[in-house]
């Protein structure tokens, strides 16, 4: 059974396009996150939502907009994609903050 | 600001022990974690330690925390080739925001 799933796994697109990455968790968790991992494997939090409410919003360009239609889903929409957006994006969720479960990641390549 | 540092690489022989080190700056850290990332995969939580503990053991894994020096280590006993991965140290304070270290790439050779 998949706990935290993301689609797509790979996404290749051109600069200037708009794209979305979807995340779903079937663990019944209240809190979900988006993280960005760059080419040097550095991992940084972008957003967190608790019960559909935005809790953490790090210094992320406003071209990135998270959307949580319900507490099991947290999607990430990116407008006007730039080369520097190329990275692996991880979704995560938890119910107790010391146990975060990560999805498999979405590798975004902007050409 | 918060900062978490790790050495980038560690190479060990199969069967030996591996020790991965981490230092952090946030004195209000509540939980400290070790995550494992295998190639092309997401992060897997290996273990965590509460800041009022100084040691935690879980099968082959031993976590040591020196709160005074803000130093965390992960010891893997009897390291196997399947342990080859990137290991991330992370800390969280009073919120659920995780601050990750730079990751240590562990290579196990026969």
Describe the structure.
The complex is a heterodimer of chains A (111) and B (110). Chain A is mainly β and 111 residues long. Helix content of chain A is 0%, strand content 57%. Chain A has strands at residues 4-7, 10-13, 19-25, 31-37, 43-50, 53-57, 64-70, 73-78, 87-94, 101-102, 106-110. In chain A, the strands form two sheets. In chain A, strands 2, 4, 5, 6, 9, 10 and 11 form a seven-stranded mixed sheet that branches. In chain A, strands 1-3-8-7 form a four-stranded antiparallel sheet, with no helix packed on it. Chain A is globular and about 35 Å long. Chain A starts with a strand and ends with a strand. With 110 residues, chain B is an all-beta fold. Helix content of chain B is 0%, strand content 56%. Chain B is globular.
What series of H and E elements makes up the topology of chain A?
A: EEEEEEEEEEE
Helix fraction of chain A? under 10%
- How much of the sequence lies in strands of chain B comes to over 45%
Separation of termini of chain B?
41 Å
Quote the average pLDDT of chain B. Answer: 92
Shape of chain B: globular
**Could you tell me which chain pair has the largest interface and how many residues each side has?**
A-B, 22 and 22 residues
Distance between the termini of chain A: 34 Å
Low-confidence stretches of chain B: none
Beta strand count of chain A: 11
The SS-based structural class of chain A is mainly beta
Low-pLDDT segments, ≥5 res of chain A: none
């Amino acid at each position: 059974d998949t706990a935290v799933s993301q689609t797509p796994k790979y996404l290749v697109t051109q600069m200037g396009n708009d794209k979305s990455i979807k995340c779903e968790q079937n663990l019944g968790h209240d809190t979900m996150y988006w993280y960005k991992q760059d080419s040097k494997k550095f991992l940084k939090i972008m957003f967190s939502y608790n019960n559909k409410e935005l809790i953490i919003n790090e210094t992320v360009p406003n071209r990135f907009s998270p959307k949580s239609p319900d507490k099991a889903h947290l999607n990430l929409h990116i407008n006007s994609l730039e080369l520097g957006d190329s990275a692996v994006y991880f979704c995560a969720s938890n119910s107790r903050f010391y146990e975060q479960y990560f999805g498999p990641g979405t590798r975004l390549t902007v050409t | 600001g918060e900062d978490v540092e790790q050495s980038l690489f560690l190479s060990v022989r199969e069967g030996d022990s591996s020790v991965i080190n981490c230092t952090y700056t946030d004195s209000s850290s509540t939980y400290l974690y070790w995550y494992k990332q295998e190639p092309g995969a997401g992060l897997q939580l290996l273990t965590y330690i509460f800041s009022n503990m100084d040691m935690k053991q879980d099968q082959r894994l031993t976590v040591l925390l020196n709160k005074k020096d803000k130093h965390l280590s992960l010891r893997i006993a009897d390291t196997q080739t399947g342990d080859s991965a990137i290991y991330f140290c992370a800390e969280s304070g009073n919120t659920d925001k995780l601050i990750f270290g730079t990751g240590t790439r562990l290579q196990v050779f026969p």
